[in-house]
Amino acid sequence: MRRRVSGWFLLFALVLTGPVRADDWLEAGPFGASFPTIWDAGWRQEGLGPLAWWQETEETFSSGLVPLLSYEYSPVLDRERFDILYPALTWRRSGRESRWQLAQVLNWVSTGQQDETDRYIHRTLFPFYFEQRSVSGTNDYFAVFPFYGHLRNRLFRDEIEFYGFPAYSKTRKGSVVTRNYLYPLVHTREGPGLTGWQVFPLYGQQHKEVTWATNFLGDRVLSPGADSWFALWPLVDRQHTGIGTTNEAVNGRVLPFYAWLRSPARDQSTWLWPLFTRTEDRRLNYVEWGAPWPVIGWANGEGKTARRVWPFYGDIRAGTSRRNFLLWPVYLHRHIEDTTFDRDRWRSFFFLYDDTLLRSRETGEYRRETGLWPFFHWMHDPSGRERLRVLAVLENFARNRQALDRNYAPLWSLYWSQKDPVRGLASQSVLWNFFRRDVSTNEVRTSALFGLVQTTRKPEGDRHWRFLWLPNPHFESAGPERVSTNRIPVFPTRRGTVAGPGNPRVR
């Protein structure tokens, strides 16, 4: 897989870069560009504006045709990623495990143990088809929903069995077995010291005795008992938990008239739910009222103070945390302190504006991200590196930032800036290198009109000009002479030093 994918990208890179070496500067307008990376030490080549790119750093090799596909290989971690129209089709490999996935619905996973004693493949077309086959045969399962199925370690259960779902199903989690008939209307439940049944929503009950179990350290630990029942759910119920411990709790409700919680640490009563609620926390030493909860509330005590008139104003302080809002969700703020870090976050309309700061109380180093959708996103990491991107369409709320950078961000990044003060490097680019500026300890290079006009300035103050990409010896790559003679992007067959400003490429 790795060789096929890398071959495709090398073919594109050969067409785009021609005779340019992988560690040579190039400013050829939208047709091609080659320059050192700032955020991670390495080299990057681009072609067709932001659409085609290739990059190699000390830890990874990656390529992409935005927004169609991208590929990344990390030899140190033995990990690969391949995306086609992300997240429509993805392939991931880590060690001996690989996974194809189509739109979170169809997936094919192949994995094996490190000692090669067993290997299995499972296929899923969610939620209709589940299959797993192993070499040993001990981990096999098969299911065609809703007709028949037997699953292991899927859907948050250790074992699942069903026939003509929802007519009958059986699940096991740990040592607790639940049998469902016409799910979710009727079920029975059994386990060590546990019995229960329900006819939903009319009536149900469950009882668990106090038992002892052995944990992974071999120590015997107490498993508390519990009793619960409901009638005409969710109107009437009662639960008694923590039996056999020092913190037994009883809670129940007869909605909408009354709901209660009683325990040694905390009492709570609600009348005409949710109009009037009183909470007394004896462990944290505070009393809180809600009338009605959560619109209007106030709390007083050592453990918590609060004033809330939602959505107009709120100020809640509890221990080392503080939350504020004003005209929710126009202004939202949260601050948390602990022995290691301080975390501060300001937001407006959730993701429209987001400013998050995480600072080490010991060293003072911090990580900060600020974004105003869809205009910009700025980031500072604990090592002092900074990155600014304009525009930022998905950066403020994307969970997988690396996949976003590989597959989509180059399209809308009209301006970006990066700097690394530790290595003395910085760069800025406007309109996909229409104007570009690179700073290193050796020189300052600028390029305008897609490289038609270029300048370089040395530390001694000498400035040189270059027009129409004509040869000029003053525009040779700065720093020590590079060892690499590659004339196209190379695939890292083994770990080595990657060329950057002042760094040779060693193979």
The assigned structural class equals mainly beta
Q: Any idea what the shape is?
A: globular
Largest sheet: 43 strands, antiparallel
Ends distance: 23 Å
Number of strands: 45
Tell me the helix content.
Answer: under 10%
Radius of gyration: 31 Å
Mean pLDDT: 86
Please tally the helical runs, counting DSSP H or I stretches of 4 or more residues.
3
Strand content: over 45%
Unreliable spans are 6-20, 478-507
Quick summary:
The protein contains 3 helices and 45 strands. With 507 residues, the protein is mainly beta.
Q: What secondary-structure arrangement, pairings included, does this model have?
A:
Blueprint lengths: L1 H16 L8 E2 L5 E5 L4 E6 L4 E6 L3 E5 L3 E6 L4 E6 L4 E6 L2 E6 L3 E7 L6 E7 L3 E6 L6 E4 L3 E7 L2 E7 L4 E6 L2 E6 L4 E6 L2 E6 L3 E6 L2 E4 L5 E4 L1 E7 L4 E8 L5 E6 L3 E5 L3 E6 L4 E6 L4 E5 L5 E6 L2 E6 L3 E6 L2 E6 L4 E7 L3 E8 L4 E8 L5 E7 L3 E5 L5 E5 L10 H7 L1 H4 L2 E6 L4 E6 L4 E5 L4 E5 L4 E5 L5 E5 L40
Antiparallel strand pairs: 1-2, 2-3, 3-4, 4-5, 5-6, 6-7, 7-8, 8-9, 9-10, 10-11, 11-12, 12-13, 13-14, 14-15, 15-16, 16-17, 17-18, 18-19, 19-20, 20-23, 21-22, 23-24, 24-25, 25-26, 26-27, 27-28, 28-29, 29-30, 30-31, 31-32, 32-33, 33-34, 34-35, 35-36, 36-37, 37-38, 38-39, 39-40, 40-41, 41-42, ...
